[in-house]
Each structure stands twice: as C-alpha cells, then as structure tokens.
Amino acid sequence: MKIGILALQGDYEAHARVLKKLDVEYSYVRTPADLNGVHGMILPGGESSTLLKLLQQNGLFDALYERLKKGMPFFGTCAGAILLAKTVISPAQISLNAVDVTILRNAYGRQLASQMATGHCILNTTPLPLFFIRAPKFIDLAPDIKIIATYQGDPVCIQQHACLLATFHPELTQDATLHLYFLELVRKTAIPHF
Predict the structure, then answer these.
(1) Domain boundaries, given as residue ranges, for the chain
(2) pTM of the entire structure?
(3) pLDDT of 61 over the 70 cut
(4) Does 171 qualify as catalytic in the annotation?
C-alpha cells in the first residue's frame, strides 16, 4: 500500500512524518504521473485557494477528480477538507465536489488562528487532540455522512464513502488515530489499482 500526499503547498511534510512513524510507504504528488501506484491520497492543510490554483496549473485537478470518481480513498485536513467539500462558502470557490457537505471557510475567524483543544471521537474512548488553524466549519451535512469527531457539539471530522475530512490538523498532534483509520479505509477499498 502506498499513500500519495499532495505536495504543492501547505503542511504535507507533517503528514509524511506521521506515515513514516507508522511505517507506511508514501510519495509526494505534484503531477498526474505521481499518482501512479498510489492507493489513497492525503490533501493537507494550507491555503485552499492557492492549492486550487496550483492543482489546476499542474494538471492535477482533473486527475484527482477522476480518482475520486473511481472510489480512491481521500483524507483532507483543513484546506484539504475544503477542496473535497461539495459546496464552499465565505467566499465561494470551486472544489473537487467529493463529499456532500457545505464548508464555511475561516469560520472561527482569527481567534482560532492557532488553538489546541480536545474533542470527542467515536474511534476511541480517550479525548482526541485537535489543532485548529483558521479552521473551516462543516454545515449542511448530507444524511449519510458519518460524524467521526466533534468539538463543542460541532462535527470536526466526517466521512462519506471513502473520503475522510477534518477541519483541524491531526498531523500536527502526537495522535495517529485518524491516519490509522484512513489507512484502514484504504485497505478495505475493493479497487486495487487506480
């Protein structure tokens, strides 16, 4: 199993450190050719409009969209979650239209410019560390979306089909719960080659 990490901008190296610690093979994805042999994709945090522009310039937007249509598992954190949401507001922008949720950019304003907190996660009994950086917020979730983690009653990690989205940065904590869960999604995917 090999995980691709979008490496155009943002905190992609932090995700690589988590995968290395978990002894999982990974590669950086900067062009469509880099997707060869990849079984799942991580879209990191960063600046979503910048990432979107770079995806289009590098020919990756359509290539990632095709992988999503074929059922490849994706894990988007913060800006990566914005790229995967069906609807993006404040301001509006296009996306990969993968998960039936509306996401509100920079929902918490500057007070969450950098905040550590803990939330509830259905995957374990201990509190989940949450690292928010100008975090977006999920609103208008489709009925079939599974809520994986919450913070003060709001969903902060959700799943629909093989896509996992988090409004925070799990890669910047010492907790690998969500990465391990994503790797399980990749292992369970019935399509062996993309």
Answers:
(1) 2-188
(2) 0.94
(3) yes
(4) yes
